[in-house]
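Quick one, probably user error.
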């Protein structure tokens, strides 16, 4: 079985969020299980020179973007045993960032079409093309409209994975002919609520739809979570399922992580304290081992639940606690945390950045990891926190609901609250702080957290089962 994994970002080449982690680790896990998996992504200019130097040019072809005929260079690179195809076109991808341009629709229409056009020119004939989020959602649409019936496309099946339903690729209908090249009589596949909706097109055309946790698969049938797509998903629900993401246990491993002050395992968990000390020193908080240190590593945006934090933060800071925040995002939250850090320098430390190395130091050095998301398709940070023995405090939604269980019953691995309510979160925080004060009980909880298995093993097998089912039954 051969799977071509199409993604707009993938670790270690280009990253803006969790999708890059998944695209960097699921193919590896598939390959370990003898599935031929390769990745295709754009060749952005922001990819490091070191990685660029390892790329080999295969050939150049021409890709249609409606009436345009665009250059498409195909490069190949091998990383961690996985073959990556990088799609070159400097007009589209020589930019400072991955997303956020006036012509993103055209850039990713080009990419989605290139995914199909390169197939006759590479030594890999996929049985399945696995697409991710709106940036690759046009691949199944184009496959159906323009390539069906032709070799080598005849039997190719598609999977469309939703990593976050909030981002759909919504544009005006003038794009139909000029950018997508879709004739009016076929417009129905991509139109939704009078807009061009890339994701809706992908959902409708793909053989199967998955999302990144079982709970989120249920939640997106509800208008509160679906950002308008519940009606279409309800009609397509027979081909929808949720498969929980894993994390890469080679990359996130406190025993070998070179970013942290002291390596440790569940057996040597007392060494975790050295990381706490190093973290407190690095971010300028008083070095104390008796105070619970709460870590936040997140984009600072509304759906991550920061309005709840904002609401009760000063009340919470009356307790003897420390909070370290790493992330960047909306001005409202950046300025709120900035002010809090100025006002309480002994309790709050803020780094407004995307800093993977400091993130690891927080996963290793904090005691409690706060993730009160309003919605969370899967969430990787809570799983990384568990692996580093930092106890997650989460709202029960999406993948957080599937991975974190309240320790109140003596068997869980974290602290949870259900309703999107600031005082429910505060209550859970107080419970966590109280739990922390009982050293013996806390150490048991830390060990239990570290022993949870969120590696790709189980989820990769579920994807393989799904691929096989599609190949057998269509
Ligand atoms: C998106 C989601 C996040 C998920 C990640 C990887 O970033 O918001 O919950 O873990 O994709 O699937």
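Nope, works fine. Designed sequence:
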């Amino acid at each position: 079985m051969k799977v071509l994994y199409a993604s707009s970002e993938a670790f270690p080449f280009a990253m803006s969020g969790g999708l890059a982690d998944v695209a960097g680790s699921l193919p590896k896990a598939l390959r370990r299980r003898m599935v031929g998996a390769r990745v295709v992504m754009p060749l952005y200019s922001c990819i490091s020179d070191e990685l660029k130097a390892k790329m080999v040019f295969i050939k150049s072809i021409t890709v249609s973007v409606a009436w345009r005929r665009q250059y498409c260079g195909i490069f190949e690179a091998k990383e961690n045993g996985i073959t990556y195809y990088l799609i070159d076109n400097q007009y589209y991808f020589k930019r400072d960032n991955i997303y956020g341009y006036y012509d993103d629709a055209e850039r990713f229409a080009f990419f989605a079409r290139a995914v199909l056009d390169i197939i006759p020119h590479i030594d890999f004939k996929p049985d399945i093309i696995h697409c991710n989020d709106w940036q690759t959602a046009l691949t199944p649409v184009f496959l159906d409209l323009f390539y069906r019936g032709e070799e080598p496309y005849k039997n190719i099946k598609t999977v469309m994975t939703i990593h976050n339903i909030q981002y759909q690729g919504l544009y005006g209908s003038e794009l139909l002919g000029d950018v997508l090249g879709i004739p009016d009589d076929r417009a129905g596949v991509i139109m939704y609520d009078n807009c061009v909706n890339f994701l809706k097109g992908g959902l409708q055309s793909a053989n199967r739809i998955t999302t990144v946790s079982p709970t989120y698969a249920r939640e997106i049938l509800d208008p509160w979570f679906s950002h308008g797509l519940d009606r279409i998903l309800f009609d397509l629900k027979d081909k929808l399922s949720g498969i929980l993401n894993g994390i890469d246990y080679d990359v996130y491993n406190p025993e070998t992580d070179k970013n942290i002050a002291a390596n440790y395992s569940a057996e040597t968990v007392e060494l975790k304290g050295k990381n706490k000390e190093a973290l407190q020193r690095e971010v300028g908080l008083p070095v104390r081992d008796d105070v619970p240190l709460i870590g936040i590593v997140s984009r600072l945006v509304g759906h991550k639940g920061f309005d709840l934090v904002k609401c009760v933060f000063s009340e919470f800071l009356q307790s003897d606690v420390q909070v370290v925040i790493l992330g960047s995002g909306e001005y409202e939250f950046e300025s709120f945390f900035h002010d809090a850090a100025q006002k309480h320098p002994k309790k709050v430390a803020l780094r407004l950045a995307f800093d993977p190395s400091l993130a690891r130091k927080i996963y290793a050095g904090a005691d409690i990891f706060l993730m009160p998301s309003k919605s969370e398709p899967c969430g990787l940070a809570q799983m990384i926190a568990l692996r580093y023995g930092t106890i997650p405090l989460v709202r029960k939604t999406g993948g957080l609901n599937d991975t974190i269980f309240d320790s109140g019953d003596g068997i869980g691995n974290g602290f949870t609250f259900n309703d999107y309510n600031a005082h429910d979160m505060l209550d859970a925080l107080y419970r966590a702080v109280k739990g922390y004060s009982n050293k013996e009980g806390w150490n048991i909880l830390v060990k239990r957290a570290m022993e949870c298995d969120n590696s790709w093993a189980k989820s990769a097998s579920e994807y393989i089962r799904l691929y096989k089912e599609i190949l057998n039954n269509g």
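The chain has a mean pLDDT of 97.
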